[in-house]
Amino acid sequence: MTPPWRARSDGLELFVRLTPKSARDRLEGVETLADGQNVLKCRVRAVPEDGKANAALIALVAKQLKTPASRIRLAAGATSRVKTLHLTGEAGLLAERLEKLVAEASPS
């Protein structure tokens, strides 16, 4: 399976499918969209108004990766469920952390 991220010279691009207004904030593993793209499924409690859900997504990913939120920015999909996050940092280390998170979040 292709991972839901792509290495860049200055970090990673992470592809996410966000569900706002959830019961709790969490990562739910990898999902394959109809077009074949793999995305990381995420849920946040925040509502999709005034960028609140996007900010909650960045905070969730930062917390899970143990990286500062200032190193994560929304690169695409501000008003869409499918988003691209740009994570600045060492791509190999970020990919390792994401692999671990995906393995923990995916149902057995």
UniProtKB/TrEMBL annotation:
Which InterPro entries is this protein grouped with?
DUF167, YggU-like_sf
Q: Which residues form a coiled coil?
A: none
User: Which SUPFAM superfamilies does the record cross-reference, listed alphabetically?
Assistant: YggU-like (SSF69786)
Hey, which family's this protein in? Belongs to the UPF0235 family.
* Classification via HAMAP family: UPF0235
Question: What name goes with this protein?
Answer: UPF0235 protein SAMN06265338_1067
Organism from which the protein derives? Rhodoblastus acidophilus
